[in-house]
Amino acid sequence: MSEPTATTSEIKTTGSKTAAELEKQLMRAKQLIVVLCMVIALLLGALVTLWAVGGDKEATTGQAQATATTGTQAGAAKSDVGTNQTPQALSEPTQEAAKQVIANAARRQSDDPRALGRPDAKVTMVLFSDFACPYCTQFAKQVQPQLQDLIDNGTLRIEWHDLAQISPTSPLAAQAGLAAAAQGKFWEFERAAYASAKDGDHPTYTEESLVALAKQAGVPDLAKFKTDMNSQANVDAVKKSRQDAYNVGITGTPFAFIGDAVMPGYVDAATVRATVLAQAAKSGK
């Protein structure tokens, strides 16, 4: 029995269908290639954007840090040489809660080894500081020496509070300050520590370097100093001082209450003096 034979019209129809299907498949392949190319282009664009943004962030951060440091140092230098403008005193907070915090901040103890000036001074500066803070270093070197006459004449008293947080060895340095204070040499130790710090640096301290600073400061019993520096009592005291500051919203250094006014960061000596004198006039003492 013979196989069925396709007619000429049937062959033509089948050929047309096959060509049409091939053409459709070719169009689909082309569309798929176009889509894949678009996806690859989008992915490459995203990667380039991420790389550029990351680079910009690093550059911006570096520029911001350099600008902040340079700007603060330039402002301090300008203040030190003086200008024709009258320095403006720092302002006082208006919130009652803030006023209450300031009212309770000063210790005013006659035997306070971490205070400079008379307990009955017209104005008390409650200073929060960190031995590893570069702006605290700047404040200690450029501002505090220019306040000495106000301390000597009974206008100003400075009381130190630790806010040791900037570096991993900040707490150890604060403990060393307490150990020096126990032997009546806190301010000598404070001056030695800040004098040894380079401008703009975040110093790292060791037990050996702190003992060397204590020796330089004239602490008489260095063995006792080292024991006190590592005592649990001083470890706890430094932690408590930091937490007390956080509890009232103080998170940066240097920070100070000057009478009823607030110094929220580093300011120049002229501004601090103007604030002290304004607060002294207000006190009526």
Descriptive account of the structure:
- This protein is of the alpha+beta class.
- The protein contains 10 helices and 5 strands; from the N terminus they run ααββααβαααααββα.
- A 5-stranded mixed beta sheet has the order 1-3-2-4-5.
- A hairpin with a 2-residue loop joins strand 4 and strand 5.
- Helix 5 crosses helix 8.
- The chain is extended and about 110 Å long.
- The chain starts with 7 loop residues before the first helix and ends with a helix.
- The N terminus is likely disordered.
Considering the chains and any ligands shown, give keywords for the structure:
single chain; 285 residues; alpha+beta; 60% helix; disordered N terminus
Summarize the entry for a quick read.
This protein has 285 residues and is an alpha+beta fold. Helix content is 60%, strand content 8%.
* Number of strand elements: 5
Overall pLDDT score? 80
Count helical runs.
10
End-to-end Cα distance, whole Å, is 133 Å
**What composes the largest sheet?**
5 strands, mixed
Q: Give the overall silhouette.
A: extended
As residue ranges, the low-confidence spans are: 1-17, 41-83
SSE order, as H and E?
Answer: HHEEHHEHHHHHEEH
Radius of gyration: 35 Å
| Structural class estimated from helices and strands | alpha+beta
Helical fraction equals: 55-70%
Proportion in β-strands:
5-15%
